[in-house]
Amino acid sequence: MPLEIHQDAPAVEAERLTVVRGGIEVLHGLSFTIIPGRITGLLGPSGCGKTTLMRALVGVQARVSGRLEILGEPAGAPALRRRVGYMTQAPSVYGDITVRANLTYFAALLGVPPAAIDPLLETVDLGAEAHRRVDTLSGGQLTRVSLACALLGRPRLIVLDEPTVGLDPVLRKRLWDLFKEIAAGGATLVVSSHVMDEARHCDELLLMREGRILIHDTPSALAARAGTDDLEHAFLTLIESTGASA
């Protein structure tokens, strides 16, 4: 059964979250809270620490210190296995079997009943491709297979690492519409991107630079603070105002 949480309880709560990798501190004492039922955009340039933070959220990052709670449990706790979905930027499915076989395999690992697979295939618009080997799919279709696997078990927190990278505008819009539907159902999504235009689809933003969170606010508040509707320009303006290096 999915975890039941009160709507006003945090989906994610981090306090002085620090990660050391290769002897170098790459996340520097992050503190933030994410409430349920929202899409939080995790934005910033490549190498700023987005993926490291996402790995910490799903409990697979080593050398993590500070406090990090997910749905009321320590990140990585066994109780979160079916309650957190994770889609990596690189494909994390098997290319030599079919779309349906991939979902069947991952469903078995999670204890998800086979009856959940067909509705999920329809959700990501892959019903007609269910019989195809994954290595014959287009890039956009492959992304949707990975997304479907991340959605198995109806997780309450869904972490998506650059899910729209390299996709055409039509497919990007379709995925963002799907993300909004999922959030409307009460799940929490953390979606990373280095494309500032995608920030407009989010309810709130975590803007990162060099392992630190510079801004945690809504897109409209970010634009208002910078005095511009251009979110990329707003980000650059606020970087300069905080003294962060470009």
The number of helices is 7
Low-pLDDT segments, ≥5 res: 1-7
Tally of extended strands? 10
Distance between the termini: 45 Å
Beta-strand fraction estimate: 25-35%
Structural class: alpha/beta
Order of helices and strands: EEEHEEEHHHEHEEEHH
Mean pLDDT: 89
Q: Order of strands in the sheet with the most strands?
A: 6-7-8-3-9-10
Helicity, in percent?
25-40%
Q: Using only CA atoms, what is the Rg?
A: 18 Å
Describe the largest sheet: 6 strands, mixed
Shape: globular
Structure, described:
The chain is α/β, with parallel strands linked by helices. It contains seven helices and ten strands. The strands form two sheets. The chain has a six-stranded mixed sheet, sandwiched between helices. A four-stranded antiparallel sheet has the order 2-1-4-5, with helices on one face. Helix 6 crosses helix 7. The N terminus is likely disordered.
Outline:
The chain is of the alpha/beta class and 246 residues long. The protein is 31% helix and 25% strand.
Describe the structure using short key phrases.
246 residues, alpha/beta, four-stranded antiparallel β-sheet, 7 helices, 10 strands, 31% helix, globular
Topology:
Blueprint: E1 12-21, E2 24-34, E3 39-43, H1 50-58, E4 64-70, E5 73-74, E6 84-87, H2 99-110, H3 117-123, H4 139-151, E7 157-161, H5 169-184, E8 188-193, E9 204-209, E10 212-217, H6 219-226, H7 231-242
Parallel strand pairs: 3-8, 3-9, 6-7, 7-8
Antiparallel strand pairs: 1-2, 1-4, 4-5, 9-10
Helix pairs in contact: 6-7
